[in-house]
Write a structure and sequence with these properties.
By secondary structure, the protein is α+β, with helices and mostly antiparallel strands. Helices cover 61% and strands 8% of the residues. It contains 13 helices and 8 strands.
Length: 419
C-alpha cells in the first residue's frame, strides 16, 4: 500500500509519468475497434427489449415466501415453455418479493388460459395469478421517452461543460467519450442477451453521470496545468498528459470502489436470485463505469489535445519546446543567423536562448506563413577602415625615423608659428 501511495505522489509531482496522450494511433485504434465491435454486435444480434418496450403479457404468481426461489422460477419457466404456445416458448421468469413474475409475448385469451394452467400445475402452493396486458403502443411511448431522456441529458452535459470550462472543445471531447461509453455498454447488452428494461435505461443514465464526473476531474486538472504554458515550459500535450497522471490513482481508486459493490449485485441478481430488474440495472452500471474510467484516461484527453493542436498558443508552445530541445542537444544550435555586429554571440542558459530565439521567430513570421531562414543582406564595405589620422598642422615630408613614410615635420618651440 505504501508503494502505491509513493507511486501516486511521484505521478502527481511529475517524477514518474506514463504516456497516455502522445500515443494517438494506439488509443484511437483501440477505442475504434471497441466501438465498431459493439455496433456490429447490435446490428447482428439486436437488443432483447423487454415487454415494457415491445408489449406483451405479464403474470404475477403469488407463492409463500419460502417457495419464492430460483429453483421455483426455473420450474415455472420450463412449464410455460412446454405449454405448447409459440409466443411463450421463451418466457422471462424472475422473482419479486413474495411472487414470481412471468413475461411472455402478447397472447390470445385461449393461449393465456393454457399458460395459466401450466403455471398452476408446475409447483404446489400457487396462490392468486394476476395477469397484466402491456400494449405495443405503450411500449413504444416508453422507448421514445427513454431516448428523449438520454438526449436531454447529453445536451445538458455539453452546455454544462462549455459554461464551466468556457471551452467548447472540452464539451466535444466529453461528448465523444460519452458516445464511446454508450456504444460499448449497448454492445455488451446485445452480446449478453439481457433484457433492455426501464431499469437498464436508468442505469445507463447513472453511468453517464459517473463517466462525466471522471472526465470533468481530468479536464479541470488540464485547465490548471495549461494556464501559463510559457512559464511552465510545457506543451499542451505534455500538460494534458501530466494532468492524466496526476488524476490516475484517484480514477483507479474511485473505479474499484464503485465496481466492487455493483459487481456483487450483478452476481447475486443474475446467478442466485434471477431478478431481472436488478441484473439489468447492475449490468449497465458495471460495464458503463468500467468503460468510463478507460475513456476518461485514454480517450477524452487525447481528443482534447487533437482539437487544440491548431490553436496559436499551442503551436507557439510546440515551437518553444522544439527550440529548447535543439538547445539542450547543442548550445551552439541556438546561435541566431543574424550578423555578428547586430547581436554578439554570448554563452548563457540554453533554455533562455531557445525561448528568445523562438519568440523572435514568432515575431518575424506572420500568422499562417512558414518560417524560412535567409542570410541577412551584406552591408556596404566601409572605405578607409582603420584609424583616421588628424589633419596635419605643418608641412608633411618623408621621415627617416618612420621608415620613409610621410610625417608632419616638427619645429623647435622657438620657431613654431614663424614662417
Amino acid at each position: 500500500m505504501g508503494k502505491f501511495s509513493r507511486l501516486g505522489n511521484d505521478l502527481y509531482g511529475g517524477r514518474k509519468s506514463y504516456d497516455f496522450v502522445h500515443k494517438k494511433t494506439l488509443w484511437y485504434a483501440v477505442s475504434g475497434l471497441l466501438v465498431a465491435g459493439a455496433i456490429a454486435v447490435v446490428l447482428l444480434r439486436g437488443l432483447n427489449f423487454g415487454i415494457e418496450f415491445t408489449g406483451g403479457t405479464q403474470y404475477k404468481v403469488s407463492l409463500p415466501a419460502a417457495q419464492v426461489t430460483q429453483t421455483s422460477a426455473d420450474t415455472v419457466r420450463e412449464a410455460v415453455a412446454g405449454a405448447g404456445v409459440a409466443e411463450a416458448e421463451s418466457p422471462i421468469v424472475t422473482t419479486a418479493g413474495e411472487a414470481i413474475l412471468v413475461q411472455v409475448e402478447e397472447l390470445t385469451q385461449e393461449e393465456s388460459d393454457q399458460v395459466t394452467t401450466a403455471i398452476e400445475g408446475s409447483i404446489d402452493g400457487v396462490g392468486d395469478i394476476s395477469q397484466d396486458e402491456i400494449s405495443a403502443s405503450w411500449g413504444q411511448e416508453v422507448a421514445q421517452r427513454a431516448a428523449l431522456g438520454v438526449t436531454v441529458f447529453l445536451v445538458l452535459v455539453m452546455i454544462f461543460i462549455g459554461v464551466y470550462f468556457r471551452e467548447w472543445k472540452m464539451s466535444v471531447a466529453a461528448f465523444v467519450a460519452l458516445f464511446h461509453d454508450i456504444a460499448i455498454t449497448v454492445g455488451v447488452y446485445a452480446l449478453s442477451g439481457f433484457q433492455v428494461t426501464p431499469s437498464a435505461v436508468t442505469g445507463l443514465l447513472a453511468i453517464l453521470g459517473f463517466s462525466l464526473y471522471d472526465t470533468v476531474v481530468v479536464f479541470d486538472k488540464v485547465k490548471e496545468n495549461t494556464l501559463e504554458m510559457s512559464k511552465t515550459r510545457q506543451t499542451y500535450a505534455e500538460a494534458a498528459n501530466l494532468a492524466v497522471n496526476q488524476t490516475l490513482v484517484r480514477s483507479i481508486n474511485t473505479g474499484i470502489v464503485a465496481l466492487i459493490p455493483i459487481g456483487a449485485i450483478l452476481y447475486v441478481s443474475a446467478v442466485q436470485l434471477g431478478s431481472s430488474s436488478l441484473q439489468d440495472l447492475a449490468l449497465s452500471q458495471f460495464v458503463g463505469m468500467a468503460v468510463g474510467v478507460y475513456s476518461s484516461i485514454f480517450l477524452a484527453p487525447r481528443v482534447l489535445v487533437h482539437l487544440k493542436a491548431n490553436e496559436t498558443e499551442v503551436v507557439l508552445a510546440e515551437k518553444r519546446a522544439r527550440a529548447r530541445a535543439r538547445a539542450a542537444a547543442d548550445k551552439y544550435a541556438a546561435v541566431p543567423t543574424t550578423h555578428a555586429s547586430d547581436r554578439p554571440v554570448v554563452d548563457g542558459d540554453p533554455d533562455e536562448l531557445a525561448d528568445e530565439l523562438a519568440d523572435e521567430d514568432e515575431r518575424a513570421v506572420p500568422a499562417g506563413s512558414t518560417a524560412m531562414r535567409t542570410a541577412p543582406p551584406r552591408r556596404p564595405e566601409a572605405a578607409g577602415r582603420g584609424r583616421i589620422a588628424p589633419e596635419a598642422r605643418g608641412p608633411v615630408g618623408p621621415s627617416a625615423a618612420s621608415g620613409g613614410r610621410n610625417q608632419p615635420s616638427r619645429k623647435p618651440r622657438s620657431k613654431r608659428g614663424r614662417p
